């Protein structure tokens, strides 16, 4: 284990953080007031397209002894699963569409095409990850308890293998998340009872049985002579969906310019400082409309972390305004094309596979946070004249 000094606090002076928070609150209130028929039409259109693609994919795979049918069916089913997982399941379970009052598109009734039971995911993701984004020791999503993604996380020899198991995780990402959401580590830490763990394992087993039976038993049997290619098409669709989700999520959370924080920095954290941490602990991915839809608009990860319960189709509208705010306040706004964020993310995984003592010390190491370069970003922006 290598001890490292805690990162410098990124908190801004209370008054400037309050100003930032007030401006972001006004942006949020503006979108809440503007939600309406266009937003409802958007999400219902996505649902219709997703269901159409799934139906078409299932039908094509039912006659997938013919290679063109297999290719078309697998492509349609993969796209349908990506849409259901990213733009629908993730965002519906965040409560982004609860305001519509439609029981069919509500966070309390939606059950997604994913191994993790919805309630388990909402606990670990909505309540833990979004509250404690990138806080070492509080945000379990920071490396998902198996990857070392910050110099503040203790190093163990097993981390030498993390580039390998990070790559192996991608095609089975939903299984990794399902096991992660059981929070078995919380039992050894005394935060969760064995009885609760066993209850959660039973819930996961039921959900996994339904999912695997649907994709690997029911639909292949219905395909008759095309049973084997149908099964392989379903396997390919699930694997490609997992790789895509892994890519988008890792590129939104772990590029080298994204900061991590210590638990001490949470003490007395105001709403404005919480907003500041969300901005500095997230990264966007640049692309066009279709790309953003296929990422579940998590390519706007900064805006999602700032406003997780706002409709996802509004993030593209918010992004330039949030970026303008960051420029005014002298704050980093980490964004770039997919290839750059992907490369940077893997650089971080490789770097932290090694003990910190083997790495050269750089004062501007992005993993140590923007505060390692500028102890007080808002005050520095004021002094330099970039904040008006």
Automatic annotation (TrEMBL):
One of its GO terms (cellular component) is membrane. It comes from the Bacteria. One of its GO terms (biological process) is lipid metabolic process. Residues 72-335 form the Fatty acid desaturase domain. GO terms for molecular function: oxidoreductase activity, acting on paired donors, with oxidation of a pair of donors resulting in the reduction of molecular oxygen to two molecules of water. InterPro entries: FA_desaturase_dom, Fatty_acid_desaturase. Pfam families: FA_desaturase. This is Fatty acid desaturase. It comes from Streptomyces minutiscleroticus.
């Amino acid at each position: 284990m290598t001890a490292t000094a805690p990162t410098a606090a990124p908190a801004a002076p209370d008054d400037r953080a309050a100003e930032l928070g007030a401006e972001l609150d006004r942006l949020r209130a503006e979108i809440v007031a503007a939600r309406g028929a266009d937003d409802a039409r958007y999400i219902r259109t996505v649902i219709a397209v997703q269901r159409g693609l799934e139906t078409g994919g299932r039908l094509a795979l039912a006659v997938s002894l013919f290679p063109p049918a297999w290719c078309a069916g697998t492509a349609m089913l993969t796209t349908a699963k990506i849409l259901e997982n990213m733009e629908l399941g993730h965002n519906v379970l965040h409560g982004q569409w609860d305001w519509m009052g439609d029981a069919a598109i509500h966070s309390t009734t939606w059950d997604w095409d994913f191994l993790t039971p919805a309630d388990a995911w909402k606990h670990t993701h909505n309540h833990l990850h979004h509250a404690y984004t990138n806080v070492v020791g509080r945000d379990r999503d920071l490396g998902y308890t198996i990857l070392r993604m910050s110099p503040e996380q203790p190093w163990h020899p097993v981390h030498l293998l993390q580039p390998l198991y990070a790559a192996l995780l991608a095609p089975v990402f939903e299984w990794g998340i399902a096991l992660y959401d059981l929070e078995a580590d919380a039992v050894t830490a005394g935060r969760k009872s064995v009885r609760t763990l066993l209850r959660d394992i039973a819930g996961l087993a039921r959900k996994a049985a339904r999912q695997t039976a649907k994709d690997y038993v029911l639909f292949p049997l219905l395909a008759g002579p095309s049973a084997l290619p149908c099964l392989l098409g379903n396997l390919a669709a699930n694997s490609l969906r997992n790789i895509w989700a892994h890519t988008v999520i890792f590129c939104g959370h772990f590029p080298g310019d994204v900061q991590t924080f210590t638990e001490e920095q949470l003490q007395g954290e105001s709403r404005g400082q919480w907003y500041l941490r969300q901005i500095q602990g997230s990264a966007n991915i640049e692309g066009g409309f279709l790309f953003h839809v296929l990422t579940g608009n998590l390519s706007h990860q900064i805006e999602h972390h700032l406003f997780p319960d706002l409709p996802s189709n509004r993030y593209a509208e918010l992004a330039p305004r949030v970026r303008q705010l960051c420029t005014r306040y002298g704050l980093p706004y980490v964004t770039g094309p997919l290839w750059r964020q992907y490369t940077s993310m893997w650089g971080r995984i490789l770097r932290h596979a090694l003990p910190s003592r083997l790495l050269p010390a750089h004062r501007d190491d992005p993993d140590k946070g923007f505060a390692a370069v500028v102890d007080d970003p808002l005050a520095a922006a004021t002094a330099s004249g970039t904040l008006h």
